[in-house]
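Two quick folds needed for the group meeting slides. Do the first one here.
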Amino acid sequence: MRSFPAMSEPLVSVAMCSYNGARWIAPQLRSIIDQTLKPCEIVICDDQSTDDTQQVVERIASESPVSIRFFRNEQNLGISRNFQRAMGLCRGEYIALSDQDDWWHPRKLEALVQVMEGREDVAYAFCDARLVDQNLKPMPFLLWDIHQLTPQRQQILESEDAMELMTVANFATGATMLFRRYWLEHLMPVSPNWIHDGWISLMLSAFSRCVLVREALVDYRQHPAQKVGACRREQLKQLTWQRRMNREFFTREAARWADAYAFLREKKHLMRRVSDLELVRRRAILDRDRLALRLDPSQRWHLVSEHLMAGDYDRYAWGAISAAVDLIWHE
């Protein structure tokens, strides 16, 4: 078991990324400043905003009891690289990721730290979130409803078998996460084929354990200007088969999981169960072959039967339905 330095009061850094967020960022900053467990700092990396984001932040920083450190990127980095920069500038024992347009419930940081304190085997925690519209009016469902994070799946994510689920989908949204900064150097760099929060939660689940806070402690704002959001992700799930399961989709998926496997293979000495590497390898092979049969239909029967026999369709996809789709697919 790895040991971490004991601190009288846990130090939490908040890593926030901003881009043209002048309309949204003030309420979010105030919700962070008003936490029952105050962060030691808020690190904001701005990705070349063209609005008044910097001026809004500077105004709040001048009155804030919490240190706010603002950095403007010399060039636009994109969301994942920007978060990498923000995390790298953090100095606290824990790092909490923050979007610019949400609103945190007052106990969010306290609740997440509380479930991790004294548990050196836990690398990260995450909570549920309430989906709200652009005016913070609640929608009739929670984030875990969108992710289909059932009580059974919650138990699996907290168990030794977490990678069984994490190789199927990501259940930990960055805005709801807290993780130990100790692990940061082992997570970097994030693959350019991944969104940062999916990469972080996958790697931390491979290296250590997570614990869930079964409360909605974030108001997760949904609006048209978002780069990524729960409703936008749900809309992607509802795309037609023609768009959802085409060559472009599997080109991305094959690249993502190939990157994850190559990264973990180099870091297997950190994995809590080296056998989990095989789960990532099989996922990478399945997506590679699902792309291959779209490029060369003559391979369909061979590849589909092979993965059916191996149980890959049941483990990583929708079983016989996905296999049937692959057999009849045409573009």
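Then this one, please, same format:
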Amino acid sequence: MTKTSLSAAAALFIVTLTVKADYSYGQNEYYRPDYYSTPPPTYYSPAPIPPPPPTTQSENDNEGYIWYSPDFAGPYFRAEVGPSLFSDTHLMHFGVPANDHVRFKPGFAVNAAGGFQFNPNVSVDFEVGLNGAEVDHINFFTYDRANYYNLPFMANIMGTLPLDNGHIVPYIGGGVGAAAAIFDAQNLTTPANPTISGTESTAVFAAQFFVGARFRINPRMWLGGGYQYFTTSDPTWNYPGDFKFGFKAPGEHQFLFTFLWKF
């Protein structure tokens, strides 16, 4: 072997060793030890996606469904005010049995109640109120003043049917209880009979029926209107001298503006 052949063989051997050392991590330049001290990540395997951060839901989120949330059950306050039209009636007593026609002027009604909503369809409440009217005319009688009032204490049950995800809430219900019936008169008399004056009260049974609709202003507040029929048992008052005065209880047709606040 010539000297030139030996030199070429030696050079080929050295190059072979060098290349083998450089590719000790694989037959790819990206795995050469002079580029990486450790193998690179596997890019074809996606990294796990972290879960979204927790969020809190305000009472306005999904507000259209508040009627169907268990959180809706709870206490509420209700208030009503409006005109009350008293039906005509007749006297039953003015010292002796009587039957004279009685007519009232348009009156008023004010009610306030606190209650509890059990679910979207049923609630109960306890109501106090005041309604009354001025006597317009009693056949064959004269007077300087004659007013009739009721102070009711009622237990009510109410059914509701939320529509449009609770934005419109028709309601219907009724109640029973008692009332203080009050008659205030000044110089009420008729020919050949005594004159009565003063304010007297008596307890009577009371009942009512109501229907209407409320419209949601926000998740806690509703405004609306309704009709209510209110009546009592026949009131009789005892004036001084054991003078009995009374009339057939008039029915009341009340047209009420209503407000409800949910706590």
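Slide caption for protein two: Residues 3-22 form the longest helix (20 residues).
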